[in-house]
Each structure stands twice: as structure tokens, then as C-alpha cells.
């Protein structure tokens, strides 16, 4: 007896095909669309009365801002996150930061891999868009990079595994410290998991009203948080390579070496600057013993690159220290990571180009590898678009709130763009129009300037001719 053929709904089939074609042909626009839909969904969830401790529907700006901050794993807030949202609200926040931290395209591809146990070409291209922004554009892409297209499936497995292992590991290290502090076991379990997720996703939300106050001088607790933030900020492609070649540095790709070296230089350099700039500040480090000064300096340097946690009041920092934090936030973490900013490899490429120009050589080189010119063009574009986004946001905020200090506004604008989450106090006290601007800055910062530019470009055009060359004066 012959089995009857499975009947497919023509409408659902065409809808699925249309979504798959849209995702495969323009991953950048698909990612922006999905991010927008997620913001709407989570806004709806935060608007539910069950999401607030008061049982009342929150103002639309608070719901939208929180949804954007959660999905973009920023950490900025217009309300007291620990006390304003209920247990249900915090569960929504937890789920949202996991989705936003992993990445929309990566998460969709992981779910497809779990269901079908294999990856087709479309899914590989979709997932690769999160690992390498260059793939967001149409046209051929060189495979001489950190993660090749054929390794996408293994990368996705590494992403899923690393999220579980690292977050559970960080939570396991925090749990006993909370028990020592006197937190009951059930609350300690929830808070340790919450802190570990916020550290690895580089979000920086805290689950209790007192926040980090009970642990603000504790070396164990703060060091564990720094480790979680650092592992989340180096990027999944780096974790993928290190997981397979941790003892064989010669097999590390150029991307991995640049990311690790630049990240460590920024971490140590920032800590040294904070140690001396805040040395005599009575509102921050003055009066601390040398061990605490070093611990707090490294903690600030680590969190300024996208972590978002704070043990000291940024509002009380010296202007020079705020500028250092601004620079670290703008750079951010590694590519394809949970961190934001223009990325550490971007700034590394710019310095390598400057060194090559100073030496009078044509090629950029690092670790015995030559870097092609198109990578430099992309780096310049990322910095330019990032600086433009911050500049436009800052100008609009100054126009709306002319009585506020420039350094505080600039600080929060960069924090929003870099999805860092540190605040000078401006965001929560700002007017509603200013908060809308910061929400837009967070959104554009998270989807990435490369993704945005690729989405706006209809296609990559190839010219069959070249115009006459002429060199303008530069410098």
C-alpha cells in the first residue's frame, strides 16, 4: 500500500522560501530586520503589567529603551533595573541578552543545525555573516581569514558549547562567594547565573538593588567577572581557534593574534592610566591600599571595553579619566564577540597602516603575514561611520539638553554606540527625546556600521573601466 504524499501548505511554503531567499541574498538586511522584530517583541513583553514589580504598565520609552538595551546587550537603563522589573521581567532580560549576545544570525543557524543536524550552503552563508562582516556583502570573499566557510558548522558548535561552559563555569566560581556573603542558596544560584550571563554577554545588568556594593573590594568576585567579560569580548572565532590549538600558537590565525595582543595591550595600558589619573581623586581611589588600586584599575579598564559593570561612580571621575574610558569604549572588544565598539582588530589595522607608512613600505604586515588593502579600507570605513554616529548623537543630545555637560553627554553617547553600559548618570536623568536618541544610537551601534552600510548598498558593483589617477594633498 503506497503512502500518501505529504500535503504542504502552498502559502507557508512560499513564505518559508521567501524568507530563506531574503536571508541568503541579503544577510545584512535580514539581520537588521530580525533585530527590529526582536526589539518589538521584547518591547511588548516589557509592556505587560506582569513585567514590573508595581504591576502597572511601564511608559513606552522605558519599555522600548530596555528592549533595545537588552537585545543590543548594552546595559544602559532609564530605570533601576534591579527593582523596577519583576521576576518575570528579569527572566525576559536574561533570555534577551543571551539572544543578543550570541547574535541573531548565529542563533538561527544553531537552531537549524540542532533540528536538521546539518548545514546547507544558505545556512552556512547566513551564519558566516556573524563571524565575518565582509560576508554581508555580495560577491566573492577571500577565504584567507580566521574561520573558513567550511568550518562554519564547527564554529556554531563552539559557540553553543562555549556559552554553556563559560557561563556555567563563571557561575560556579561566583556561587560560593555569595554563600559566604550570606545570600541564601536559591538566591545565590540565581544571582550567580545572572551575573555570569551579564559578564559573558558584556551587558552589565545587576540582579539586586545593592548591585556590586557587597563585592566592590573583593578580589575573587571582581576577577571572576573580569574573566567572564574578557572571554565574551575576544570573540567566538578566537575561542574556536584557541579551543583547538591552545598549546600551538604557531597555528593561530592572524586575526586571533591581533585580537589577543591588542586586547591585552588595551587592558594593561588602560589600567596603568587609571592607576595614575585617579590616584589622588578623593571620590575614587585616594586612600586605597596599593593592592586595591591595582584591582580597581584593572576592573575599570576591563569594563570600559564593553563590560558595563562598575564599582566606582563614573560621575565622580576626573575629566582625563573619562576621556580614557571614552577611547576604550569606542574601541570595544573583538569581532564577532558579545562586545561592541569598532573592534580591537580595526584599531590594530589602522596602527599597522600608520607604521607601514612611517617606514615607507607599501604593505601592512604583522606576525609574518601581509594584510591586503581592502581590509584597511574596511577599517577606515568602520571608524568613520562609528565616529559619525557618535558625533551626530552627541550634537542632537547637546541640542536637546543644552544645560548638560559635554563630557557626560559624550560619555553616554559613546557607551550607547559601543554597547558598553557604563554611564555618567546622564541616561537615567535625561529627557524622553534624549532617551529615544540614545536608544537609536544603541541599535545602530549593535547592528554594526559594516552591516548597516552593506544593508543600504543594493549590491557590489564592478566597473569595467578605471578613471585617470590624481593624488590630492593629504596631511
TrEMBL record:
Keywords from the UniProt entry: Cell membrane, Ion transport, Membrane, Transmembrane, Transmembrane helix, Transport
InterPro entries: Cat_transpt
A Pfam family annotated for this UniProt entry: TrkH
UniProt GO molecular function: monoatomic cation transmembrane transporter activity
Subcellular location: Cell membrane
Chief location of this protein within or outside the cell: membrane
One GO CC term on file: plasma membrane
Keyword Heme part of the UniProt annotation: no
Biological process terms in GO annotation: metal ion transport
TM spans (from-to): 30-48, 60-79, 91-115, 155-175, 220-242, 254-277, 327-355, 375-400, 436-457
Keyword Phosphoprotein: no
Membrane topology designation: Multi-pass membrane protein
Xref: PANTHER family: KTR SYSTEM POTASSIUM UPTAKE PROTEIN B, TRK SYSTEM POTASSIUM UPTAKE PROTEIN TRKG-RELATED
Protein name per UniProt: TrkH family potassium uptake protein
Lineage per the UniProt record: Bacteria, Bacillati, Actinomycetota, Actinomycetes, Micrococcales
Amino acid at each position: 500500500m503506497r503512502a500518501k504524499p505529504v500535503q504542504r501548505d502552498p502559502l507557508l511554503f512560499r513564505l518559508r522560501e521567501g524568507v530563506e531567499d531574503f536571508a541568503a541574498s541579503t544577510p545584512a538586511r535580514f539581520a537588521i530586520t530580525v533585530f527590529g522584530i526582536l526589539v518589538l517583541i521584547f518591547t511588548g513583553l516589557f509592556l505587560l503589567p506582569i513585567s514590573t514589580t508595581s504591576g502597572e504598565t511601564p511608559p513606552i520609552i522605558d519599555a522600548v529603551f530596555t528592549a533595545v538595551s537588552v537585545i543590543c546587550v548594552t546595559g544602559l537603563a532609564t530605570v533601576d533595573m534591579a527593582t523596577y522589573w519583576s521576576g518575570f521581567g528579569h527572566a525576559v532580560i536574561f533570555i534577551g541578552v543571551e539572544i543578543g549576545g550570541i547574535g541573531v544570525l548565529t542563533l538561527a543557524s544553531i537552531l537549524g543545525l540542532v533540528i536538521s543536524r546539518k548545514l546547507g550552503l544558505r545556512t552556512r552563508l547566513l551564519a558566516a555573516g556573524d563571524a565575518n562582516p565582509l560576508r554581508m556583502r555580495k560577491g566573492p570573499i577571500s577565504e584567507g581569514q580566521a574561520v573558513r566557510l567550511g568550518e562554519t558548522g564547527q564554529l556554531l558548535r563552539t559557540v553553543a558549547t562555549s556559552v554553556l561552559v563559560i557561563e556555567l563555569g563563571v557561575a560556579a566560581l561566583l556561587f560560593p562567594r555569595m554563600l559566604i556573603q550570606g545570600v541564601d542558596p536559591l538566591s545565590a544560584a540565581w544571582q550567580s547565573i545572572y551575573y555570569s550571563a551579564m559578564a559573558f554577554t558584556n551587558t552589565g545588568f545587576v540582579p539586586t538593588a545593592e548591585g556590586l556594593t557587597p563585592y566592590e573590594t573583593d578580589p575573587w568576585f571582581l576577577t571572576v567577572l573580569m574573566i567572564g567579560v574578557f572571554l565574551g569580548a575576544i570573540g567566538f572565532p578566537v575561542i574556536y581557534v584557541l579551543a583547538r590549538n591552545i598549546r600551538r600558537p604557531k597555528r593561530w590565525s592572524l586575526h586571533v593574534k591581533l585580537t589577543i595582543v591588542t586586547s591585552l595591550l588595551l587592558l594593561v595600558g588602560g589600567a596603568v592610566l587609571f592607576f595614575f589619573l585617579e590616584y589622588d581623586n578623593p571620590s575614587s581611589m585616594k586612600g586605597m591600599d596599593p593592592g586595591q588600586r591595582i584591582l580597581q584599575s584593572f576592573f575599570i579598564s576591563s569594563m570600559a571595553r564593553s563590560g558595563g559593570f562598575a564599582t566606582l561612580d563614573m560621575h565622580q571621575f576626573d575629566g582625563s579619566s573619562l576621556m580614557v574610558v571614552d577611547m576604550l569604549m569606542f574601541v570595544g572588544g573583538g569581532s564577532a564577540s558579545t562586545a561592541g565598539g569598532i573592534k580591537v582588530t580595526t584599531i590594530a589595522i589602522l596602527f599597522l597602516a600608520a607604521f607601514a607608512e612611517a617606514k615607507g613600505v607599501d604593505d601592512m604586515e604583522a606576525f609574518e603575514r601581509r594584510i591586503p588593502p581592502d581590509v584597511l579600507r574596511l577599517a577606515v570605513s568602520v571608524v568613520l561611520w562609528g565616529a559619525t554616529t557618535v558625533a551626530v548623537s552627541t550634537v542632537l543630545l547637546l541640542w536637546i539638553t543644552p544645560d548638560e555637560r559635554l563630557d557626560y553627554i559624550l560619555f553616554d553617547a559613546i557607551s550607547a554606540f559601543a554597547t558598553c553600559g557604563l554611564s555618567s548618570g546622564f541616561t537615567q536623568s535625561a529627557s524622553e527625546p534624549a532617551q529615544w536618541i540614545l536608544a537609536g544610537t544603541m541599535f545602530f551601534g549593535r547592528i554594526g556600521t559594516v552591516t548597516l552600510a552593506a544593508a543600504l548598498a543594493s549590491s557590489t558593483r564592478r566597473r569595467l573601466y578605471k578613471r585617470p589617477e590624481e593624488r590630492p594633498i593629504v596631511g
